[in-house]
Amino acid sequence: NLIRHQLRVAVIDMDPQGSTSVAFGFAGLGKVPQHSAIEAIASRATPETVRSWMLPTSSDGLFVMPAGTADGFFSLQAYQHAADTGINMTELLTKYVIDPIRDHFDLILLDAGPHLDAALINTLQASDSLFVAIGLDPLEFDSSLKFLESIHGLLANIPSPNLDPASVWLLGSKFDGTNPQHLDNYMMLKNLEPAKLFVNRMEQLRPFSSVTEDGRTVFTIQPKHYAGDTRSLRRAQNVAENVVAEFFSNILEVSN
User: Fold this and answer.
1) Which pTM was predicted?
2) Is 131 strand, coil or helix?
3) Which of 139, 93, 99 is nearest to 117 (CA)?
4) Distance between CA 115 and CA 58 in Å, rounded?
5) pLDDT band for position 3 (cuts 50, 70, 90)
6) What is the share, in percent, of the chain residues with pLDDT greater than 70?
7) pLDDT band at 4 (very low <50, low <70, confident <90, very high)
8) Of 24, 157, 198, 235, which shows the fewest CB atoms inside 10 Å?
9) Strands in 125-182 per DSSP E
10) Distance (Å, rounded) from C-alpha 37 to C-alpha 65?
11) Under a CB-based contact definition with an 8 Å cutoff, are residues 4 and 44 in contact?
């Protein structure tokens, strides 16, 4: 998708767990020179410095700002940063990270964890659209619905949100078509308004879980290094490719 559209894309990992950073080969501050968005806020980094912290990946036009090991403390420090700078607490990410790189990329993707914290509030403030993957097992499904309800409350407390509730996209994840509970929960997702549900679903296939254990994805692992059936790997790749294509189609529609 990136090659076809000739886009420059920035991925900013706001989740202290750093799973997105690991997937792109960036694991652990101190191992290589890398800096996080939260560090940019805390240090009041200059625009030039922030741009230099966007690290290239093996894919042309795709850059990543990895998560940092101390990012989890941001919620404890955000109000102090706001008091020190005179910037609204919800706008720190926009001011110190998004604005400096806005004109240098066609798309900026923010990956935030499912936590009602300062990182998520800043992400919502800076975003034009929101993508949420929802697992269909009962416990995960219930907690995800509560999370979505909380997001609407957070948006009401943001001074000038860019995010239109109609630009919230949902993906049915870990879908098992033989599980009646999954089928029922998926039908519920179809009726959630004003959010929109992806046509494609992320099926519950073994390759997704097995490659994640090694910090890889179904796209980055070589078939010869995959311990399972290569046909199942190809199926997982096809499922993921369909989801990715739909994702970028929707995101590009919002950004145009």
Assistant:
1) 0.86
2) strand
3) 93
4) 30
5) low
6) 92
7) low
8) 157
9) 130-135, 168-175
10) 7
11) no
